[in-house]
Design brief:
The chain is mostly helical. The chain has one domain: Rhodopsin 7-helix transmembrane proteins (Rhopdopsin 7-helix transmembrane proteins, Up-down Bundle), CATH 1.20.1070. 77% of the residues lie in helices and 2% in strands. The protein is built from 14 helices and two strands. The protein has a two-stranded antiparallel sheet with strand order 1-2. A hairpin with a 4-residue loop joins β1 and β2. α5 runs antiparallel to α6, α5 runs parallel beside α8 and α8 packs antiparallel against α10. It is globular and about 60 Å long. It starts with 20 loop residues before the first helix and ends with a helix.
Length: 345
């Protein structure tokens, strides 16, 4: 193992692993982690690219809410395409690799923080916009403008960058976590700030988002009779609004389930006494959320499902075959019709 005293990384009371040493010492952590993170990285990057292509190519998906969906996909892709592969490198190469490239670990951890802040704030914005859309329709056009949505997205990234810049002032840091064995927020650098970070940027937004969805469900429950009457005259419009709200709620639920254990751990384990297994699996679990959203869209959102199918068929060359098949059916139908007309004559 690498000498702790010469390694400029966080959690100095934990073992520091060199190349392949973590794999040799604790294969029960490394092997499952590499398998799961590899699948998450490939599937998540593929899915987030699919989201961006679907929104760009299908008009029904291009609305003001899609700005936050695109922002969420971009934020998530930073994790699946950059942070996840570097997580695998950390498990295999250990500290040696990051020692050889100065500031690399800080950059990876900073990207992860900025991305996660952008993701949660985008999910929060989707919940608020959906709440306005369903419960206060008259205000929807005022809040949900293209300009407002873009400004909010820029603001999310600005907030994330601001948190990273605080490190330069000695507030918090991003380092190699020796317990989780990856580059991430340094939970031990300033525990007071870690608590503030957890409360202000994780717990408060998640609670507010939960309140928005609770108000939506309460509104739907209180107006069931009216909505049934409305659905008879407008069979799709109101139902689509509620179903899309359910889609975004599931996205929020997935994020919460993934991040709540980590948000609790960094606050509770102020003595760094939790086991390496606990820290490794909890950190890995937190980073799985960016790989799941596209699956949620596909299974719960009819327009995304159609868009994904169209994109995949086009990429696989099936769209042309479909058109040719339809053309053959039309030709056969014309031939049969002509033959019938001759017989009648």
């Amino acid at each position: 193992m690498v000498n702790n005293e010469t390694t400029p990384f966080a959690n100095a009371d934990s073992d520091v692993y060199g190349r392949l040493e973590f794999l040799q010492d604790k294969p029960h952590i490394v092997i499952p982690s590499i398998v799961i993170v590899s699948i998450a990285s490939v599937a998540g990057t593929f899915g987030n690219i699919l989201i961006l292509i679907a929104v760009a190519t299908h008009k029904k998906l291009r609305n003001t809410e899609s700005i936050f969906i695109v922002n969420l996909a971009i934020s998530d892709m930073f994790v699946t395409a950059i942070a996840d592969p570097m997580n695998i490198v950390a498990k295999l190469e250990g500290v040696d690799f990051f020692n050889s490239i100065p500031k690399l670990c800080q950059i990876i951890g900073s990207i992860c923080t900025i991305s996660c802040v952008g993701s949660l704030m985008s999910i929060g914005s989707l919940s608020f916009i959906r709440y306005i859309h369903i419960c206060h329709q008259k205000l929807y056009s005022k809040f949900s403008t293209k300009r407002n949505c873009i400004c909010l997205c820029v603001g999310f990234y600005t907030l994330g960058v601001f948190l990273v810049l605080l490190n330069l002032a000695g507030i918090g840091d991003h380092q190699f976590d020796r317990k989780a064995v990856l580059c991430i927020w340094d939970r031990m650098a300033n525990h007071t700030f870690t608590i503030v970070f957890s409360i202000v940027l994780v717990w408060v937004p998640m609670i507010l988002i939960g309140v928005c969805y609770s108000l939506i469900f309460y509104y739907v429950y209180q107006h069931q009779k009216h909505m049934r009457t409305y659905a008879i005259n407008n069979p799709l419009q109101k139902q689509v609004k509620v179903k899309v709200g359910k889609t975004f709620f599931i996205v929020y639920a997935v994020f919460s389930v993934c991040w709540i254990p980590y948000a609790l751990t960094i606050v509770v384990d102020h003595n760094n006494s939790f086991s390496q297994e606990a820290h490794s699996y909890i950190a890995m679990w937190a980073h799985l959320h960016p790989s799941v959203n596209w699956i949620v869209y596909y299974t719960t959102h009819i327009h995304f499902r159609k868009a994904f199918n169209d994109v995949l068929c086009f990429c696989l060359g099936l769209q042309k075959r479909r058109r040719e098949g339809k053309g053959d059916k039309v030709n056969m139908s014309n031939i049969e019709s002509a033959a019938t007309n001759k017989t009648n004559m």
